[in-house]
Amino acid sequence: MKSILITVEGPIGIGKTSLSRELSRAFQLELLEEIVYENPFLGKFYENIAEWSFQLEMFFLCNRYKQLQDIHSQYLNKGTSVVADYNIFKNTIFAKRTLTGDNLPKYLKIYDILTEDLPQADLVIYLTASIDTVMKRIALRDREIERSMDVTYMENLIADYNEFMEAFEKHHPATPVIKFNCDDLDFVHRPEDLRKVLETIAPRVLELQAKQG
């Protein structure tokens, strides 16, 4: 079986890491978790988005770039499949929401250069939900750094994700996308929901792994 890269995406607090860990266990995949709370600009960003957005986005981009380089050389290139709790394309979603003026085109040029040769996802799992569900789950996990998160920012981010994913499916028809509405699912606290999600994903994972590279 060939190695594949699965990415789990969706707005903050939706359950990306939790589902990625379950997929790793269920399908014997190497797990890649993004570096989030080591970002020294994150707390400042939530307090003043305009002032700290460029520093925040550049830190994330460089760290994700290095992670994906390492995953490619250490696992994918050696036949080991990987599930990641993010897709590198998320950088453009956040950047287009937070960066202004000359910062956005500069950032996108750097993004294009860095991601040109990175491994691309063979399967994207997209988690979405309403603003009420997302904010409730953010509050439930009660991370100090997220307590000052702006509701309007999150509402816009959810809309940005939905718009981006619609365009992604249109322009990347060869990359399968499995979408779950998490207003109706709680795979973290309800085992029956987790089973339902894994049963939906399993056939596509097995199909992709069985294909010859």
UniProtKB/TrEMBL annotation:
Coiled coil: none
CDD domains: dNK (cd01673)
Binding site for ATP: 10-18, 137-141, 185-187
Keyword list, A-Z: ATP-binding, Kinase, Nucleotide-binding, Transferase
The keyword ATP-binding belongs to this UniProt entry's keyword annotation: yes
Gene Ontology CC terms: cytoplasm
One MF term in the entry's GO annotations: ATP binding
Domain Deoxynucleoside kinase stretches: 6-201
InterPro entries: DCK/DGK (IPR002624), Deoxyribonucleoside_kinase (IPR050566), DNK_dom (IPR031314), P-loop_NTPase (IPR027417)
Entry keyword annotation includes Hydrolase: no
Pfam families for the chain: dNK (PF01712)
Sequence similarity: Belongs to the DCK/DGK family.
UniProt-recorded name of the protein: Deoxyguanosine kinase
Taxonomic source organism: Brevibacillus centrosporus
Taxonomy of the source species: Bacteria, Bacillati, Bacillota, Bacilli, Bacillales
